[in-house]
Amino acid sequence: MTVRTPAAHVDSWYSRSAHPAPAHPRLQGRETADVVVLGAGLTGLSAALELAQAGLSVIVVEARRVGWGASGRNGGQVIFGFGCEQPKIAAMVGPELSRRMFDWSIEGVRLVRERIATHGIDAGWRDGHAHVAIKPRHIDELKAWQDDLATHYGYALPWWDREQLRAQLDSPRYLGALFDPASGHLHPLNYTLGLARAAVAAGVRIFEHSPVVSLARGARPVLKTADGEAEGAFCVLAGNALVHGIAPELDDKIMPVGTYVGATAPLGEERARSLIRNGMAVADINWALDYFRLSQDHRLLFGGRASYSTVPPPNLAGTMQRRMTRVFPQLAGVKFEQVWGGLIDISLNRAPHWGRLGENVYFAQGFSGHGVAATGLAGRIVAEAIRGQSARLDAFAKIGHRNFPGGRAFRTPLLVAAMAWFKLRDALW
Fold it and tell me: Strand 205-207 vs strand 212-216: parallel, antiparallel, or unpaired?
């Protein structure tokens, strides 16, 4: 067995602390299966695992390495809901279906926990997540959200005032929090690698270093690479932000957005625990939000500073350090050992975009920053549809999605301008 080293991925704390994993061959020649999947990230592996457990043969074709994209680089927060607020989904599909979709999002969080337990995945899971308020209007927004969740979705969460929050989070920046004990956080790359191991054990064949150059549709779709072809009765497109041109009708429904995470040097167990005493993950509710958590080796993992141009901002490490010390002034002088980024896929309305093209090509994209839990749910729902149980996928297909304005030439500057407005609102209001 060939063992992959951390250097196989983009340099990050995740890749440096990743468990060794087997390398998979390139796709060469013609391979066939019941289902072929593009992308060995969380979406594709989740679908592949579900299908293999149901007795179908599955091939996964990956351009680089398992978990190379956003699945192995993200903030690691596993939370309920989707990228847009639930009332927005209710306005699009009605309150009854919105309630079911919310329950399914809870299933997505639960599924992560179940897979970790069932497959023995060492992903450093920790319980707890807090949405925190910076300004008085955030308190109003979070309490309105709390009421909506309890009243319409049966999901009651405790409110922590400033004193209660400060007992767990040693930051003067925040005024209160909505806390969810059932959400949590993990090491996303190790979780993705663990899903791959589970999928292979179930019979899935994974091919790495095999960029797909085209999809031939028809009675048996074919994923074509430079050196081979993978043919199946069904195809699943799970490349998200890193795929363009394979299914052109999907391209303008999502926008690649760069997001960034930094890892400090180890702080020591005592100092780290003094920052977040209960070990929860934290995120504010600004448009340009900060999110952070502690690592297993007692670092602070601090994320934020999204780029709608997909170009890393200048002096990224310095910017991230300034944002971190606004939250934790006691960390002034603490440097990031690593800062890395990746591309996530957002839809225009921030709602999930899952469905099918024709009778036998399925896709899931538009996770909009809520992907760690929602990807597992998407994989399960797509697998259900392939097996003839399409009710849940059909429900998500009821969500309307429009193209980003301006086409590929103008949508980036338009979104950069929009982002500037939201940042100004965060600062002034």
Answer: unpaired
Backbone angles phi, psi at 68, to 5 degrees: -65, -35
Whole-number Å distance between alpha carbons of 193 and 186: 13
Nearest to 191 by CA among 106, 260, 281, 125: 125
Rg over CA atoms, the chain: 21
pLDDT of residue 2: 45
Task: State in words which class domain 125-186+255-347 has.
Answer: alpha beta
Q: Using one digit for the tens of pLDDT, what is the confidence trace for 171-230?
A: 999 999 999 999 999 999 999 999 999 999 999 999 999 999 999 999 999 999 999 999
Q: Which two tokens stand for residue 157?
A: 């969460």
pLDDT < 70: residue spans in the chain: 1-7, 309-310, 406-429
Q: What is the pLDDT of residue 243?
A: 84
The continuous run of DSSP H or E covering 132 comes out as: strand 126-133
| Residue closest to 8 by CA, chosen among 201, 263, 196 | 196
How far apart are alpha carbons 70 and 72 in whole angstroms? 5
- Strand partners for 239: none
All structural domains of the chain with their residue ranges: 3-74+189-253+349-413, 125-186+255-347
**pLDDT (0 to 100) of residue 226:** 97
Q: In sequence order, what DSSP letters do the residues of 274-315 get, joined into one string? A: HHBTT--EEEE-SSS--EEEE-TTS-EEEEEEEETTSSPPTT
Find the DSSP H helices in 178-238. Answer: 188-201
For the domain spanning 3-74+189-253+349-413, the CATH number is: 3.50.50.60
Distance between CA atoms of 112 and 99, rounded to whole angstroms? Answer: 21
Return the closest-CA partner of residue 199 out of 91, 350, 40. Answer: 40
